[in-house]
């Protein structure tokens, strides 16, 4: 009969020491946890993904359950309510956009009106002689030689300049001429707005130089009348001319701004 193998022994030798070593299973588990193999890592990742998917599905189901118990008519009413809210929101957006465009348009119109008003104020200030001005023009020199230049002759010179577009006129750098300026014959010269101006009379006028000059020297123009009075008239065309004399605005005695 073959020999019986005693307990704890195997044929051909003894069982390895790890079989009989107390706690050998726990040791293998500890090694697996601290030093997992590649297959164990893959299994762990797959389990984590499955768990995440399950949690996401549960949450989605819970969120979607808000409308799960509603009837078809209830769902239609809910959709209609959302559509109405959307329409009201769009209408409010359109209203605000329209108001914005109106404000921009109003601002543009206001700026244009202000610019136009400012141009008118500047033009009136020039015509009223309230501000210094500069620009192209002519310098007219009238010299008394054998006679006295009459007031009517001098006034013809001024009127001719105005009629062809002189925008600003001064005499001898002392008097700024405006629409209400007065002229009188004085002793030793002319009284312009009460101020004595003596010969030679130097008239500076701003405007188109060639037009202003042509208005004075044509055959029957003011230059001829100056010669008949015993004087001479010469015209210099200038590309830039400064008129520095100004007048103070008169305060009205009776008129008041209408509120």
Automatic annotation (TrEMBL):
<comment type="similarity">
    <text>Belongs to the UPF0749 family.</text>
</comment>
<dbReference type="Pfam" id="PF05949">
    <property type="entry name" value="DUF881"/>
</dbReference>
<dbReference type="InterPro" id="IPR010273">
    <property type="entry name" value="DUF881"/>
</dbReference>
<protein>
    <submittedName>
        <fullName>DUF881 domain-containing protein</fullName>
    </submittedName>
</protein>
<feature type="region of interest" description="Disordered">
    <location>
        <begin position="1"/>
        <end position="26"/>
    </location>
</feature>
